[in-house]
Design brief:
This protein is mainly alpha-helical and 68 residues long. It is 56% helix and 0% strand.
């Protein structure tokens, strides 16, 4: 029974390795260039870089309310 489970385990491993080998690879330099280009293109939309408009900031201090 142990040899059957061992063979089964090895088959799963081989299938996983075949799957990983078929994945298309990209050079790190190309991936870094693509990431840099994406960041530069979307910098104007990044709230951490440009900030939030005062009216749409959910974390702003609440206004005080005076009851008449």
């Amino acid at each position: 029974m142990t040899s059957n489970s061992n063979v089964s385990s090895m088959r799963r491993t081989v299938e996983q390795l075949r799957l990983e080998a078929s994945v298309e690879r990209v050079k790190v330099s190309q991936a870094a260039a693509d990431l840099q280009q994406y960041c530069l293109q979307n910098a104007s939309k990044d709230a951490l870089l440009v900030g939030l408009p005062a009216g749409s900031n959910p974390f702003r201090e609440p206004r005080s309310c005076a009851v008449l």
